[in-house]
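Recap for those who missed Tuesday's class. We walked through two folding examples back to back. For each one, the amino acid string is listed first and its predicted structure tokens come directly after. Nothing is annotated here on purpose, so try labeling regions yourself before you check the end of the notes.
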Amino acid sequence: ARTMNLLAALSKVKVCVPDEEGRVPKPDNKSTMHAADRDKLQENCLGVLGLFAIDKPCRTTIAKVNPSLSHLFFLCKDLEDYEEPWRSLRRKRAAYLVANVLIRDADIRVQILQQNVIKRVPE
């Protein structure tokens, strides 16, 4: 549950990006972090959730924390403030995690269909 909440928080955090000369400014407040740090934390969270998604009780917890899987669907989008290679790799890992959860768990699959979440997935 904490990993899912951390992943959601990381999706909303403001990032510091390098300027034209490659210098990275210091974060200006507690809600700002370096893009590389955010990307690494997201990578680790998606990896942990990918491992946990194999286990039924963990999938149930993921669905309780975020019943519509909106945090994961959000990370499947092509978000502008991400750089390659993490930009495409993040989308791939988030999509894999969503697919893994939906394929393995019929209850969550029914829950997602009943909420019409699939209609809101970006193209």
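Example two. Treat it independently of the first, because the proteins are unrelated.
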Amino acid sequence: LSSEKPTTSPPGCIAMAAPPLRTTQSAEKDLSQVTESSSAMKTMIARAEDTKKKAAMKWQATKVKVMQQAKLARAKSVELSSDKSVQATAASAVCGATVGGIGGATSGLFLGGATGALLGVPPALFTVGLSIPVGAALGAG
């Protein structure tokens, strides 16, 4: 319907043959009901169809590009994870975090309990000594 010449793909865009888009029955019905005097309406409908075609081509090109990037990322991650030095570094990091976490938790438990028990000593006169174990439990927890 349009007298414009077909456009080429923009630079950097993967040129693909998009499947031909079919006009919907409602669009064909609209075109048939348009009188010859309203060429502006025909031009608008033709441009809308052209825009649909361009959007479909860009969508396909984007899908292809995303798939290529995903394959590239997968290949790089497989290559990196198969390296023995990377595996050794990751294992060392896990072991170090585990040992450090256990050490920190243990020292926190004992030092917190001791601090809580120490702070429970002054009120022990008024609580018949129950504030010492309660303070230790609160400090350790």
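Answers for example two:
Helices lie at 25-33, 39-81, 84-119, 124-127, 131-140.
The mean pLDDT is 82.
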